[in-house]
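re: ur question from earlier - yeah i can do the single chain one, its not a big deal. heres the input i used so u can compare w yours
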Amino acid sequence: MTPDRFDLTPDLNISRVLTGLWQVADQERDGGQSDLDAAAQALVAYARDGFDTFDMADHYGSAELIAGRALQHVPATAFTKWCPEPGPMTAEVVRAGVQERLDRLGVARVDLLQFHWWSFEHPAWLDALKEMTKLQEEGLIGALGVTNFDAAHLEVALEEGIPLVSNQVSFSLMDRRAAGPLATLCAERGVRLLAYGTLCGGFLTDRWLGQPRPDAVADWSRMKYQRFIDTAGGWDAFQGVLQAAGQIARKHGVSVSNVATRWVLEHAHVAGVIVGARLGENEHRADNARLFGFALDAEDHAALNAAFAQTTEIPGDCGDEYRQPPFLTASGDLSHHLSQIPSVLEVREDADGRRRAFSGSRWEPIAGYCRGLREGDRILISGTTATHGHDHDIAPGHAQAQATYILDKISATLTALGGSMADVVRTRTYLAGDADVEGASLAHGRVFGAHPPANTTFIVGRLVGAFRVEIEAEAVVRQTAEP
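and the output i got, formated as tokens:
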């Protein structure tokens, strides 16, 4: 039996089980590089068994080099990711990043290039995607995707005309966030998900049925997904899901991993699942192929839903684990990394101690105002609209996408002045019409749901230009007690 196929685009047919190469980095974590030729031959064997869609990234060790060598021996499809550090995304920077992917893979065109961005407070992610679209038009990129984007920012990108076909996110029996707002948006816009983490780093397998929680794990993947399990209600809740999956597996004569993977694949917005390969070591191709020989029925879903009810939902939306607490990554807390991301605002301090943040908008010196002002513990944010760069209007006519972008700008201003969105005590939202209320409110609720400020919303009939939304905010920075 070979894996089912899926047309991600009219010109891009993929295996519904993608071979993930993130474990190459784990295999090389002691500083030694893999035997490229031996690893490539192991990858060739995957392709010949129908697992001919390879997924990797710029930071997965020598994965791109291995895949490039494999492509010399067997027809296959190579997906990779570009995960730059936030900063100016000029045409030259983006072209260099894409060209490095081409060079390492040894190809003239990347079949699917996926883009990751660490913090949406830094708005250059849109610049990068627009430049990547130009390179796609040149023929250097076949299809464009993103990775770890939440529904709100995927919507902004789509409203900006970025021709995205996929979003790669965590999705499993223990992490069901991708069945929420992202599923609705994908259904509306025709974007498909490539799901990783479907086996929770190997925890969602027969091996862990009835076993105690390990005191320590050695590989990065299990370190990461043990954090997911702990956040989703702990080991007992996880065992409840695992036992339900085990009963279903016995009923169908398959493995627990088959059941876990099948559950994800049966979501209509999922194009494929990414299963990691430790090249030259453990291989599970025969078992993975078996998941296309059965389907989950109503009884199976009822059993899983009963187990889900005993777990805790992973907070937030897809990708939040990289950008805000709880940081559910192998290395844990990423706040130190995020704090090092350069601000796009210039902060100036007066002799009287007031600090002002400027965005560089041409209107600031003309009208004599700043983006934000801090005096003592109080931060005031000017009315903010969805403008980017040199007065480019974001998502014209779409209130929810505009509000998402505005709130990112407000968050960046607060960060530059030493505050955060959790410090916001009041917002005022100005809307062009009644039709904008729901979309702007949903964006506001996504950001402030856990720490709601006072808010007033006005229907003003018309804003300057074509804007549908303008938001201002006030924050009071809470002082951390001295130890």
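The mean pLDDT is 94. not sure if urs matches, ping me
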